[in-house]
């Protein structure tokens, strides 16, 4: 793993130099989430315990093993900006559930609490985002295979089920301009954004000049509104797409080989 300064401070002609860091554990599973206030949630495959990692400080918190109906789990890290608390939500993988396990960091809590979701659903992959105190993640309804977005308010611990506006690319859940967004599977130039995060859950769309779903993995967006893409072959560079100017630029990581990048990414 590596930590770099803000992407926006570099131009396409400047390289990014990696800062090598040791990944905790030999077999760790990283969920498809951004870091939350500098923290990253990981699952140790050997012990089946969630880990909360601060790569900048080199600190690691090992959480107790949660009691789940499945050996495999999905974990999501959230942050409540009002109370300044981090919470980890844990679900069984690919099994219908109506409860989740919640762990509050820094509270002296020694075991997982059970919180009702009020909506039976299953979580197939750890694809989620924490935006303004709410965790959003992809799930499936208990009956059938219809995909939905579930929301979990970190402070109130209340869940909502949000219907998707269209069929979406299930690996395209990102944060864009401070809102949850996803790419339409029937129109790769269309980006859906969750405009109303209240009970109404209104979506709006924006069409761009260039397809947003390419032969790259969409990781998110910068504060400047550029989309961040990583090659599927784990080559040591990233692509940034500016939808306003319809332009691309590449940032290359120097001092690291393709094999090393594939192992650390």
From TrEMBL:
InterPro entries: F-box-assoc_dom_typ3, F-box-assoc_interact_dom, Gal_Oxase/kelch_b-propeller. It comes from the Eukaryota. Signal peptide: none annotated. Residues 14-261 form the F-box associated beta-propeller type domain. PANTHER family: BNAA05G37150D PROTEIN-RELATED, F-BOX DOMAIN-CONTAINING PROTEIN. This is F-box associated beta-propeller type 3 domain-containing protein. It comes from Brassica cretica (Mustard).
